[in-house]
Every structure is written in structure tokens, then in C-alpha cells.
Amino acid sequence: MSNHLGWALFLNSGIKNHLVATLGELIGTTMFLFFAFAGTVVANINSPAGEKLTTTGLTTGWNVNKLLFVAFSFGFRLFNPAVTLALLLTGAIGFVRALFLFLAQILGSIAASGLIVGLFPAAANVRTTLSQGLSIPKGLFIEAFLTAELVFTILMLAKEKHKATFIAPVGIGLALFIAELVGVYWTGGSLNPARSLGPSIVTWTWDRNHWIYWLGPALGSLVAVAFYALIKALEYELANPGQDSDSAAALDRERAVRMRQEVVRRRVMGAMGYDVGEMRSGGSGEFERLGRCEMGLVKDGVLYARDGGGGRDSLGGRRDSLGGREAASGVGGEKAGAYVAGHGRGGSRSGVYTAGGGSAPHVGPLGTAIRDSGESVR
């Protein structure tokens, strides 16, 4: 009984998860680099220069495509320390997991290089070096730029979850294929510190510019993460709402619930400089408590507030303390989708909305309040 209990505890522990991820990364990296190296060896056998580049690119790109399809069934595999760094910086994996994956990738590269040296002729050379006449800064930039392209593709297709996630390996494979076609002649198309380290260790042949294949991919990974963080901060999902829905006319229900409070508070209240807890009346100077009211649903890309204390609307929303109500159902004869500020008197501003003798601003996309005249309320 104790043995069964111990095994059950192990199966549900974090240690087991780290071991499975590390083992999968070790096997996956070994297979990925073995076939990539083997393709390079074959491409170098009495082939014209153009055919060498195409063969190397196809072997590397479609090799990772195949392996990622296999790996997606039991967890995404990285095969590349630069990708591991990107996922660590974006919070997709923790430091301990990243360390285990990094070690597995290095060991996998060494194992793949050893298999190539043992199976193929001694003349086989799969090390990465700069092309003759290419300066160090140019080589560094090429490695960084191509790695940034690859890592950003991975972040958008594999880390970001959407309806096309299941075919992410195709996009990642194509990105690597294109990068290899561009870079293999000039730098060897490494884009992967482990890919350059393994052959150098096995053959114990070190190029004086080996450091480029570490610094370049690291810089490229940082650039990709920075751009990814920028578009996430700008909420790129809202540029084309509903693109992953079955119907482009409506947002996904779960997504609407997540956006409901966060977007309304930050976009409408925070952008206007008001505290979430309190709001100043622009006309009378009085303070009106917002009471952290629940905002309404997202419909056709528009955020609607729920009921405002003068009665409940058809959405069944909660009440706030402004005393007004949201006329989504046409309550009180007001225009559907409008906010009514109950405390605004004589045209003075109440909270963030102008009463204006009972007229109410429309509610624009993304929670923006707009007057009847079209002027934005700030």
C-alpha cells in the first residue's frame, strides 16, 4: 500500500513534471539536431551551392515541423535555448523548468553531434562558421535578426492560444525554413546556441567567433520578447475582435467576462485620471462614490455598463452609487446603449458622464463615452 501511495504522490508532484519535460526535451533536441545535421552532411556531398542551401533549409525547417507535431500531443518542446529564454522572460515557464530544459538542450546537441560523427564519414562538418568576407558585426546582426523572427513566430503561434494553435508547427517550421535559406550561407544559420555548441564539443574544434552564436540568438530573443510585450500592452486582440470566434459578429463569452472589469476600469476610468474607488463631479465639486460596480457585457465589440441604481435593466446588472441607470433596454425612453448620470443637475458633469438635462452620451467601442454631438468625454 505504501509503495502505491508513494508512486501516486510522485505522479502528482512537480518533480515528475520537470523530469518528463526534461526527458522530452532531451529526446526531441537530439532527434531535431540529428536530422538537421544529417541533412547538412548530405547537402555538402557534391552538390551545387544553390542545392546545398535548399536542402539544408528544407531538412531543418520540415524536420522541426514534424517533431513539433509529435511534441504538441504531450507538451510543447523547444529544442533551442533562445526559445527557452523567451518563454522564461514572458512567464510561460519558471526558472527551474528553464534550467532543466537548457541542460537537456545542450546534452541533446552533444548526443546528436556524436551520432553524426560516429555514423558519417570523418570529413563530415556540421559546425557553424562565418562566411569568408562577412564581418563580425554583420554576422552578429544576421543571427540576432533571424532568431528574433523565429522566436516571435513561436510566441504568437504557440504561446498565444487561438483557433490555429493546433497547426502552429507548420508556421514555426516555415519560419525556420525561411531563416535557414537566408542565413545558412552567411553564418551557417544557427539561430540556436545548442546547435553550434554540440559539434564544437564533439570535434573539439573552436572557432574564434563562436561567441556570436550565443550572443546573437540571445539578443534576437530579447528583441522578440520586447516586441511581443509591446503588442500585448497595446492589447492587439482588440484590433480585430472576434477573429477567433465561430461568428465574427460576437466575442467569445469567456473572453468577454475577462475583459469586462479590467478594460472598463483601465480604459474608461484610469485613462480619465479618476480613482477606481472615487470619482470627482466636474460641475459641483462633490465626490461621488463609484462603489466598484460591475460593468456589463461585451456585445459586438462594445462594452456596456450595467444597471445604475435607478432600476435594473434587461442585463440584470448590479447597481452603482451614481443613481443613474444604463438604458440598454430603452428604460425611461433613453437611447439604447446610453449612460444616464442621475446626479447631474443643470448640465453639470456627474462622475465622468454629462447629464445635460437628461441627455446621455453614447457608448462607443471599447468603453469610450461619446456625447451626442460626437465629442469624446474626457
From TrEMBL:
GO cellular component: plasma membrane
Residue numbers spanned by region Disordered: 314-333, 342-378
Membrane topology summary: Multi-pass membrane protein
Top-rank taxon, per record: Eukaryota
TM annotation in the entry: 26-47, 67-89, 98-120, 140-158, 165-186, 211-231
Entries under InterPro entries matching the protein: Aquaporin-like (IPR023271), Aquaporin_transptr (IPR034294), MIP (IPR000425)
Pfam families reported for this sequence: MIP (PF00230)
The reaction(s) this protein catalyses: H2O(in) = H2O(out)
Chain intervals with Gly residues compositional bias: 343-359
Keywords carried by this UniProt record: Membrane, Repeat, Transmembrane, Transmembrane helix, Transport
Subcellular localization, as worded in the UniProt entry: Membrane
Gene Ontology MF terms in the entry: water channel activity
Assigned protein family: Belongs to the MIP/aquaporin (TC 1.A.8) family.
Name listed for the protein in its UniProt record: Aquaporin-like protein
Origin species: Venturia inaequalis (Apple scab fungus)
